[in-house]
């Protein structure tokens, strides 16, 4: 069965500093990988996704992520964080449950990002 | 216009009651989902519907019953509510069935069972 591990429950970063959030997955086939962000009291917003092709993907809000098959990782990065980036970040793998059919997302447990002034 | 909407936003109720949460999407998507987010923020899929047919049901108690009157709506009915049902429930939708489709989430319904 597929799984997603986000090893850091909390991360504290100073405003303006760089950020990397870790994500490791376990899945037998080619994974479909996603990063979502959840602001306090809000729903989930897609930051970026990887399906195939270029292993470095660009997303919204200045985020990027790199797929490394050899490490089963899909880490999220941002060169300079802003106070508004404080939120919960979820890595997810999209899987097919039956013969090409749907299609739930398996989520990691999330990383809570705190931004220090 | 909101792409995926849920009502109500907050729901406080007593143990043993029956309640429903409604979800509507105006994206023209074929597939809709329900997820549960527990107090530790862990998100787990509950149901998936494609063109009004149930695709997956991830070991959810049969007190939970999804109902899809049409492909734009997926409602969640919960019978005999228990304390452990307290959580945030998210509806989502995607175009098509494949695992690479982006899922769009609603704002969530915060359920508190007393």
Number of domains of chain B: 1
Q: pLDDT below 50 for ≥5 consecutive residues: which ranges of chain B?
A: none
| CATH topology group of chain B | Immunoglobulin-like
| Number of separate strands of chain A | 12
- Strand residues, percent of chain A: over 45%
Strand content of chain B: over 45%
| CATH homologous superfamily placement of chain A | Immunoglobulins
Task: Supply the CATH class of chain B.
Answer: Mainly Beta
Largest sheet of chain A: 6 strands, mixed
Query: Largest sheet of chain B, if any?
Result: 7 strands, mixed
What separation lies between the terminal Cα atoms of chain B?
A: 34 Å
Distance between the termini of chain A: 41 Å
Strand-pairing-aware structural class of chain A: mainly beta
Q: Largest interface, per-chain counts?
A: A-B, 29 and 30 residues
Average residue-wise pLDDT of chain B: 90
Number of domains of chain A: 1
How much helicity do the residues of chain B have?
A: under 10%
Indicate the radius of gyration of chain A in whole angstroms: 14 Å
Give me the CATH architecture of chain A, please: Sandwich
Helix and strand succession of chain A?
Answer: EEEEEEEEEEEE
Count every beta strand of chain B, where a strand is a DSSP E run of 2 or more residues: 11
Summed up:
The complex is a heterodimer of chains A (117) and B (114). Chain A has 117 residues and is mainly beta.
